[in-house]
Amino acid sequence: MKHLALTLFAALFLTVTSYADEYEKTCSDILNKVKKGETAVDYAALRLNCARTSWYVKRKQTKIDKIRKEMYAAANEGKHAEVKKLAQSILDLNYLNMTAHRMLSWSFKALGDSVESKRHLDIELGLLRSIGQSGSGKNCKEGRIVIDVEEEYFVMQVMGWKLKRQRTVSDGDITCDLMEVVDSDGNERREYFNVNIVFENYRRNYK
Length: 207
Description:
Oligomer: single chain
Strand content: 5-15%
Largest sheet: 4 strands, mixed
Mean pLDDT: 91
């Protein structure tokens, strides 16, 4: 009986390990293609698999936030080479960061490298579209799936939405950030972001 219990435990452990490894493998496979210049990839699969990897869960968000402030300051002063350097340092910590890809595209364009500018713009738009295509955002069940809070604010910035109120709501096993916003035409609207992965990673990071 003891041998059977150990066998079942070993089988369960191997299944869990294999499950986690599959996220790592899929993330790595797609990410390597993107880094090598292939931009026509499945960005939804990239985000949703990488979001569950150990490196993403343990990413240094506080450091990323600090670098982002420095990057914006450099951009305001027209220091394109510095922006490029800082944006790349963010991607070294989190290659899925859309803000960094946007700023890299901008800095490469200013520095006369149209090829690299387009490449990072394509990556930014690919990541952004994968969020938009993940749900209508009209209710929690159809919330747009995000893998970190910064993605929510990036979407709102791109769409020209101004945040009035934010609260967390649930519908069954789905947790959402409900954003009450004013759109670019001055109309009030509600947008739902599915934050299940965000909370899942919080629990993994702080357990």
